[in-house]
Every structure is written in C-alpha cells, then in structure tokens.
Fold this sequence. Notes:
two-stranded antiparallel ribbon; BTB domain-containing protein
Amino acid sequence: MSFQCTNPDFYVRSADDAETFAVRRDALCTSEVFRDMFTCCGDSDETLDLHESADSLAALLTLLHHPPQPPTQFKRDEFNLIPKVWNDTKTVIPLPLLPMLFELADKYALPSDSVIGVLAEHLLAHAPEAPLTVFTFALKQGLQNVASKTTQYLQPMANYSLGEVALIPVEAYHRVIQLQDIRVKTMRQYLLSEDLFPHGYGECPSHLREATQLWHTKRMSLAVKLETLTDVAGEMENVAYQEPVQNCVLCRKACIAAVEMLRYKCRKIYRTVDKLPS
C-alpha cells in the first residue's frame, strides 16, 4: 500500500525497513497512541521511529491521513433477494487487507466511528461472497452487528468442513444452527400449505387437475431439498413457464398469486441470528 502526504511537517520511519515517510503531526494525533507519545516526548524530535514494516506503516498512515469512506451502495430492484444492496467493488477495501487494517486501528487506538466503524462496513460488504470468513473474523473482532448480519448469507453449516468452522465459538455456532433450522422448517411449512387454487379460488375448469398436479409435484420435490438459502418463491415460479399454466390466463394468474404469497411469507422468516428469540 502506497502513502503520500501533502504539506508534511514531521517524519515517521519504519525501524524494520529503514524507510521514512513524510507526514502531518495533526493527522497522527487522530490516534490516542500518537497523542500520548507527543505528550510524553515533546516536540524536540523531527522523526519518530516505529517498529512496523514499511507496508504496515504505510497502511497506518493512510488510515490516519485519509480515513476510509463507506462503500458506495446501490439499492436492488428485486424485493426478495439478498443482498438488498450492491456495493461498488471499486470502493470496497479488499478483504485480504482488512485484518491488517483492523489490527493497526486497534493497536494505535484509532477513532471507532470514523475508522473502525467504516472498516466494519467494508468487512460486511464482503459477506455475500465470503460469509464464513467474514462471520468468523467479525466474531473475533467483537463486531456482533456485522457477524449477525452475515448469518443470512451462510450456507448450511453441514456444507462446511470441521476446519472451516473451528474458529466459531460453540454458542455462536449453535445460534446459526437454530436459525437455519427455523428457516428450513418454516419455509417447508409455507410451501406445503400454499395451494395453487386455495379453497377453489381462481380455479381453472379446463386444467384444474393437470395444473394442480404440476404445482403439487414441484412443491413436493422442492420440500425434500430445501436449504436455508433456498429461494422458495423463485423455485416455484418455474411452474408458470410450464404447460398448461404458461398459456392459460386463469392458471398463470393463480400461479403468480401463489408465488407472490409464498414470497411475502418467506420474506417474514428470520434471516439473521439477532432476530431469534433469546
């Protein structure tokens, strides 16, 4: 990571790599650690030696001089898909850099709101693509809000190896298992209770038996393979594109209504562990 400073009035040197950086004292004073150093040592020295590698020091100085901004986000048009927003990848700090930045922010007591809080937003931005990595790291850092929000992206825990879940505390692991179990059971309940023509409403006299059987076969097939991340409504929507439903106004209308009801119900199911009863 490169670092540049305009109008420097001080120098910081990497004792490990003997590389010197021109900096601003006022920017360094954003850190409690540097403020204490200057209070104890006064203004006599023009260069401060730190036992950090040049790369780590450049990263620290960047955090101090150019605090990170939250990722740029765009709301999605789809109303039932996760994530609810897109993060502009060009504005998101790469995941491999975040552990080092969190360590430096903690070590040098950087402001929790303007630095650590924003780093947490960048960490959460990686949750859809790397949920287990983000979840375990967030737990380690004590970022409970990030960890909780990340649980909505976790695959069924049985899909992960023992080595992958080894870093999850037992209590946190159990809460995820509870969440995923509730989600699957509730989705299955909603799926099996949603009929194509409930109580005969919107019934198609021409294709009643065929359309009903098509819907029933699809939902029974889906019910046995439901997982916590299954898009129930999206899967059942496929019925609308099969005969006789596809080309029948009544059948298609009933199918769309049933799918929308499933979508509405499934949207209400707990997605994150913080919503679970204590």
